[in-house]
Amino acid sequence: MMSLCHNKINISCVKSSWSNDIRASLYSLMVLIILTTVAGNLLVIISISHFKQLHTLNNWLIQSMAIVDFLLGCLVMPYSMVRSVEHRWSFGEVFCKIHTSIDIMLSSASIFHLSFISIDRYYAVCDPLRYKTRINILVISLMIFISWSIPALFAFGMIFLELNFKGAEEMYYKHSHCIGSCSVFFSKISGVLAFMTSFYIPGSIMLCIYCRIYFIAKGQERSIHDAKQKVQIGLEERNGISRSRERKAVKTIGIVMGVFLTCWCPFFVCMVMDPFLDYTIPPTLNDALIWFGYLNSTFNPMVYAFFYPWFRRALKIILVGKIFQKDSSRSKLFSE
């Protein structure tokens, strides 16, 4: 006989049948993911906030994204962990809606930030002479505002107005709704809308911009190589530095794109296909893919920060306690 979360109610959800050893292993893995996400993004936030040399416009975007990922690790992942391992929700229906809304909002906001960061890097690498005129404080502020506001309006509006299962109420109560459950449900229309808003559009922008940066950087590298014998040594050295920065930018954006697609693509593909497959995708698989998507927030600080020498220097200062010394905020992390 199946074990129910609420034994006296026949519409209660099925409890987890996993053994204590399996649950303990899952809890350990998920706690590790949560702590890594929180610690990594907190270090990015502290570094950019504390060190004056890092108070640049493009770092505002990185810091804003780190705040999003930090909040995801603090506010969303712990409750998702209990839900995933125990296969039940013990925190009430209202908090379920709040948790689901914040989950969708922060996950989407993180993806929006990645998209805007790729736009910023495009102008920095491909149009450096006009970068400061195109990417100014107003533009960066607008990017950050959009990255927070649109996901918030979309997530809370869809969940609290119950637009996510509008038109598919019968399927919702048949497949998803039960006491002790807190799983997000999408109809065909809302699923496609969520797929386009949270993944396809920002992901396509990232992919197109990365391809554009890649081909432009390759073209610049060929031009520098062809002119190599005709320039002075000093100019050669400067071109070498510029070429190195271009390759590093291309490599970093390529890794960002690869990590983003690897983490989020499986979840969003299954999410948008599930309504068209009559909701036959197992809930356990959906849960696993959600956690795979969460890993993007775990890896973001590693990709965007750990790949840069300035962050390694900032991390060393923080970990050895020098951050509490007078004028530590003026520490030189890189040459201008």
UniProtKB/TrEMBL annotation:
Alphabetical list of PROSITE patterns matching this protein: G_PROTEIN_RECEP_F1_1, G_PROTEIN_RECEP_F1_2
Top-level taxon of the source organism: Eukaryota
Single Gene Ontology BP annotation: phospholipase C-activating G protein-coupled receptor signaling pathway
GO molecular function: trace-amine receptor activity
CDD domains reported in the protein's UniProt record: 7tmA_TAAR1
Transmembrane spans: 26-48, 60-82, 102-123, 135-161, 193-215, 253-277, 289-311
Pfam families to which the protein is assigned, alphabetical: 7tm_1
Keyword Endoplasmic reticulum applies: yes
Domain G-protein coupled receptors family 1 profile, chain residue ranges per copy: 40-304
Membrane topology according to the record: Multi-pass membrane protein
Leader peptide range in chain numbering: none
Any one GO cellular component localisation term in the record: plasma membrane
UniProt cross-references to InterPro entries, sorted A to Z: GPCR_Rhodpsn (IPR000276), GPCR_Rhodpsn_7TM (IPR017452), TAAR (IPR050569), TAAR1 (IPR009133), TAAR_fam (IPR009132)
Entry's localization field: Cell membrane; Endoplasmic reticulum membrane
Keywords of this entry: Cell membrane, Disulfide bond, Endoplasmic reticulum, G-protein coupled receptor, Glycoprotein, Membrane, Receptor, Transducer, Transmembrane, Transmembrane helix
Keyword Cell membrane attached: yes
Chief subcellular location: membrane
PANTHER family: HISTAMINE RECEPTOR-RELATED G-PROTEIN COUPLED RECEPTOR, TRACE AMINE-ASSOCIATED RECEPTOR 1
Similarity comment: family membership: Belongs to the G-protein coupled receptor 1 family.
Name of protein: Trace amine-associated receptor 1
Organism: Moschus moschiferus (Siberian musk deer)
Phylogenetic lineage: Eukaryota, Metazoa, Chordata, Craniata, Vertebrata
Gene (UniProt): TAAR1
